[in-house]
Amino acid sequence: MAKFNSIFACIMLTLASLSLARGQLNPYFYEKTCPNALSTIKKIVDDAVSQEPRMGASLLRLHFHDCFVNGCDASVLLDDTSTMIGEKNAAPNKNSLRGFDVIDRIKSALQSECKGNVVSCADIAAVAARDSVVALGGPSYKVQVGRRDSRFASQAAANNTIPAPTLNLSGLLSNFKSHGLTLRDLVVLSGGHTLGFSRCTNFKTHLYNETSKIDTSFAITLKSQCPLNGGDNSLSPLDTSALSFDTEYYDGLIKRKGLLHSDQELFKGDGSRVDGLVKYYSENPVAFWHDFGTSMIKMGSLGPLTGTQGEIRKNCRVLN
Asked: Could you confirm whether 65 is annotated as catalytic?
């Protein structure tokens, strides 16, 4: 009973924190201090995605990896120093997380546009993620802004809290619930894998050791790109239209063509509730668009620093 009360209290505290965060953030935070802030971010994101469409997925992932480690506070953008080991070289991020140069360009442009240090790096990451989705054909949603930037980063926290591609369904759900997110949020936010690519090292075990869970013809194709020995950095698309925001990701799961083990865990063909959600979004793209925006806003409200907390960095890579 004591254990139940402790778990219940933890969940209620997380939900209360989310509610408080949403009350402090709003879409119009920069309306008076820098009215062209969001349009400035959008222009640079559009240019970056136009030059390299894969960058859209990278910026979306950057925001996700920021929020899942001590909240959406731009800690993931900090470079290591002699006194702080940050998140960039944590296992989920090393040699794979991208988009830092785009964030730098946005920050520089905003310093000029806003005539000073006005827009936080955490807000830049959140807005850039939304604009990336839109640039690749996905839904727009009102990003809540008003975050401030953290003064520390933690490699250990990144290693412990970013969900790994090897997690099973129970592990994924436990991870998301620890952040105040639901099963529906898990399925919807995983739908972000309709964009982007993954390295061979992230799905090699799934490909060679879980043959009953993966379509045979799909596996044969993947093995030509991801050999059992070597090729760890070879890229494969997360779905068949990796540069377009659509529901192909869910269609692939139903056909046992999930690239990552954690992806295919969302659909096992056993008639479970999670199976039902995958089928629902596969068949209802409008519902997916709507719910994706809702879940992104919810995720973006995880543990933001507001008011006088933290700082607004002048350079997103280093503390002021």
From this structure: yes
Task: Please identify every stretch of the chain with a pLDDT value under 70, giving residue numbers as ranges.
Answer: 1-23
* Residue-level pLDDT at 19: 45
Query: For the chain, how many residues are written?
Result: 320
**Catalytic hit among 65, 193, 206, 261:** 65
Q: For 29-77, write each residue's pLDDT tens digit.
A: 999 999 999 999 999 999 999 999 999 999 999 999 999 999 999 999 9
For residue 17, give both structure tokens: 């924190």
pLDDT of residue 8: 45
Q: What is the pLDDT of residue 24?
A: 85
Q: What is the 3-state secondary structure (H, E, C) of the chain?
A: CHHHHHHHHHHHHHHHHHHHHHHHCECCCCCCCCCCHHHHHHHHHHHHHHHCCHHHHHHHHHHHHHHCCCCCCCHHHCCCCCCCCCCCCCCCCCCCCCCHHHHHHHHHHHHHHCCCCCCCHHHHHHHHHHHHHHHCCCCCCCCCECCEECCCCCHHHHHHHCCCCCCCHHHHHHHHHHCCCCHHHHHHHHHHHHECEEEHHHHHHHHHHCHHHCCHHHHHHHHHHCCCCCCCCCEEECCCCCECCCCHHHHHHHCCCCCCHHHHCCCCCCCCHHHHHHHHHHHCHHHHHHHHHHHHHHHHCCCCECCCCCECCCECCECC
**pTM for the predicted model, two decimal places:** 0.91
